[in-house]
Amino acid sequence: MQSGHEACGTEGARPSGPLLRQIRDLGGLKEKSRGCFYQKSKGFLHLHEHGVDEIYADIGLGQDFDRLPAMTAADRKKIPSLTAMALRDGKPARAR
Question: pTM of the entire structure?
Answer without folding.
Answer: 0.74
